[in-house]
Amino acid sequence: GIEAGCDIKAGYGIEAGCGIKAGLSIICKWISSKLRIFAGLCIWRQPTEEETTITCEEVKEGTIAFGKLNLIQKKEVKEMTVAEIEEALGYSVKVVKGSDE
Questions:
Q1: Residue 88: enclosing H or E segment and its boundaries?
Q2: Which of 42, 66, 68 lies closest to 54 in space, CA to CA?
Q3: How many CB atoms lie within 10 A of CB 81?
Q4: Are the C-beta atoms of 34 and 61 separated by less than 8 Å?
Q5: Contact 85, 93 (CB under 8 A)
Q6: Strand pairing partners for 16?
Q7: Distance (Å, rounded) from C-alpha 16 to C-alpha 63?
Q8: What's the CA gap between 101 and 93, in Å, rounded?
Q9: Residue 43: how many other CB atoms lie within 10 Å
Q10: Which of 15-29, 46-60, 75-89 has the lowest mean pLDDT?
Q11: What is the SS3 assignment for 32?
Q12: For residue 95, pLDDT beyond 90
């Protein structure tokens, strides 16, 4: 399994063979566990509602045993050429190096 004292954050997905336990919140694109998923298990204080939240687009497998599930809508990605973008915006654009390069 996967265990963390505080938050678990992943840019994409989290997958575990047994269980997933986080002292505080879990944030990822998707989550999957053969058994159970726990968020907000900190023992040093009472966690806030936000700290017991599992935020993701999809629970592929597993049961949320403790924590509040916050399913977010999948972001649509539309592929466009520069010409199509310019036409949609009504003005010229210049491609610059972005954060995902």
A1: helix 82-89
A2: 68
A3: 8
A4: yes
A5: yes
A6: 33
A7: 12
A8: 18
A9: 7
A10: 15-29
A11: strand
A12: no
Residue 24, CB half-sphere, CA atoms under 13 Å: how many? 12
17 closest CA partner among 2, 5, 34, 29: 34
d(CA 72, CA 5): 24
Lowest mean pLDDT among 14-18, 48-52, 80-84: 14-18
Asked if 16 and 3 touch (Cβ cutoff 8 Å), the reply is no
Contact 15, 33 (CB under 8 A): yes
Residue matched to tokens 């999809």: 58
Three-class secondary structure assignment of 74-86: CCCCCCCCHHHHH
45-61: pLDDT as tens digits: 898 998 899 999 999 99
Task: With a cut of 60, say whether residue 98 has pLDDT above it.
Answer: yes
